[in-house]
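Justification of computing resources. Each target in the renewal requires a structure prediction run like the one illustrated here; the chain below, 645 residues long, is used simply to show the kind of job we budget for.
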Amino acid sequence: MNKTIGVLAHVDAGKTSFSEQLLYHTNSIRERGRVDHQDAFLDNHTIERNRGITVFSDQARFTYGDTTYTLIDTPGHVDFSPEMERAIQVMDYAIVIVSAVEGVEGHTETVWQLLQKYKVPTFFFINKIDREGADIERVLDDIRANLSDDVYYFTDDYKDSVMTEDLIEFIAERDEALLERYFEGEFDEKLWRYSLETMIQNNELFLCMAGSALQDEGITAFLSTFDALTTTNYNADGPFTAKVYKIRHDENGNRVTYMKALSGILKVRDEIAYKESLEKITEIRLYNGSKYEAVDQVSAGMVFAVTGLTNLEIGDAIGLEETTTFELIPTLTSTVLFDDSTHAKEMLAYFKQLDAEDPSLRVLWSEHFGEIHVHVMGTIQLEVLKQVVEERFGIDISFGTPRILYKETIDTAVIGYGHFEPLRHYAEVHLKIEPAERNRGIIFENACHANDLSTGNQNLVRQHIFERDHHGLLTGSTVTDVKITLLTGRAHNEHTSAGDFREATYRALRQGLEQAKNVLLEPFYTFKIKVDLDLMGRILSDIQKAYGTFEPPETVGNQTIITGKVPVATFMDYHTTFASITGGKGALSLTFGGYDHCHNPAEVIEEIGYDKNADPDYTSTSIFILHGKGYQVPWDEAKEAMHCL
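Resulting structure tokens:
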């Protein structure tokens, strides 16, 4: 049997130490490394060892009983949470580490929400019970209050225990049929064990154990229990299907594609069909830390890497009609700064390589300014990127001051018209553009009849809508949260050529924006704050000063819990202030809460200074032809000149 498990936690909860113990007790490593000693097996990159944090999701293999495990150690720092999310999509089970001293912290809640999104069955391990201030009961209450009430605390090795009355009652309370059997006094142990396994697998019950990874307490009991209560059922028959979760480049520059096989068998030299490509697998690798073993084939349930595939992206699936859309989105953008000794195109090629490995970077080349822009989660990520570029490419770079990543939308419905007809070219597009639900992105609908525009040309319009981010009129930021409907269009039998519909589509979109009421959006945090009651007034005042909103505070004992939304721009540095106010004893959880109306649009628009009439990529002006010569029609006169009206 193959099982893929992930270890996740808020930074410094002891996640890597826990992973080291699992590997040691299964004879996968001879000595247990430590983060503070810079010798942890899975933190094998110099950047990770120097900083004492996990940056990259690396995997190790071990065998326990008749099961082969792939363990994925994920980053715990919020700046690298997109890397963590990408790994979650291929996990069969997850182990969330919670400190017995700090309890549920901000990033723990983010981890939990992602595990729920991807429906990954989860176990909890309360770590650091040897530390001063450790309180298992308090942390259990914390988990039940903030994550799930369906958590059962287990103190024994499951293999050596019988089903206790307390555990049976806990299971019965979560299933009406079982509750009826419980009241009838039916205690078939096989039934209750099977029910426990099934409820864990279905995310209806979450088992929790405790110990100390550093002192090697509770690890073997946890592993034994975890192994007994988890199962997978992958089918090696049938066609090969897989999900891509990581891209890397080896020391020779080869693109290495990491994936999880969901069904079937894959062999070296097999051909893989995806998107519009057909490529041959040249090597299959089973990674264990930084080293790998080349094998001839892999089967369903295994995590592995291949070479020979050049265009697969993280989130893509092989043999399945699905692509994973990731939830964690950077809210900052920064400019790459480098000297003239490196050509801009060479630097862009390096960053495109990094972009393949971390698609959340969204690397962009600004032709107008001759700059490379990247999207990031925070300043620590920029520091790590600087080190990565220096180590891998031997180039010293820096970054401009990170700026908030704004977006734009509209508040009114309009019809945009675009016409592109210079000599020997022809395309016309009419688009209805209307506001969509917040944080939905761009939605496309086709209402064009084939008699007006061929299906092929209709598909071209759709392709051009989604092929890139489109600039808004206020700041040049990405247009989002709009529904775009293709109403009609026109082509010419002889003169319409490749690219004409791109020109017409862009102009129609831009012409529509010119008519609409444009709105600036900014990213928001969803926050959860827990502090002593006497600090409530100060915290609420800080939230209001930061242009945030909050729900009525909830009082629990001598503490208050405050939830709400606040702009990233005004709250991104609040952790330091909060720690000072609370003496480090309060709890502040910040998660990305999507985009909403900007709190200071006039100030931002003035600061960015975007000139909508000088954007080299966009114009709202249409081009028509008269007497063999093209002429321009401005956006406010374009409708009357259209041919499809």
